[in-house]
Amino acid sequence: MKSSKIVRKTILEVVDNQLRDLNPPETKETFDRLIKEGYSKEEARRLIGSAVASEIFEVLKQQKPYDHQRFVEALGRLPESAYE
C-alpha cells in the first residue's frame, strides 16, 4: 500500500507542475472548467491525475512516447473516468 501512496503523490506532483507551468495549457483549462462545474480544487487535481495516470499507463503499455492528443482527449472526458 505504501507504493500506491507514493504513486498517487507523484501523480499529483505532476498535476501541480503542469498547473504551475501551464504546460500543457489544457491542464489548467480543465482545472478551471472542473472548478466552475463545482468540484473542489482537490477533486479537480485528483480527476486530472486520473488522466495523467491513464497516459502513463498507455505509454508503458504501448512502449510509445507520450501522446499529447490522447492526453488532451482524456482531459476533455473529465469528470468521466479517463480510463473509459
Question: What does the model show?
Answer:
With 84 residues, this protein is mostly helical. Helices cover 76% and strands 0% of the residues. The termini are far apart.
Low-confidence stretches: none
Report the helical percentage: over 70%
Distance N to C terminus = 25 Å
Number of domains: 1
Average the pLDDT over all residues and give the rounded result: 93
Tell me the radius of gyration: 12 Å
Number of helices: 4
Give the H and E element order: HHHH
- This entry's quaternary arrangement is single chain
Please specify the SSE layout and strand pairing.
Elements: H1 2-21, H2 25-36, H3 41-62, H4 68-77
Keywords for this entry:
84 residues, mainly alpha, 4 helices, 76% helix, globular
Give a short summary of the structure.
By secondary structure, the chain is mainly alpha-helical.
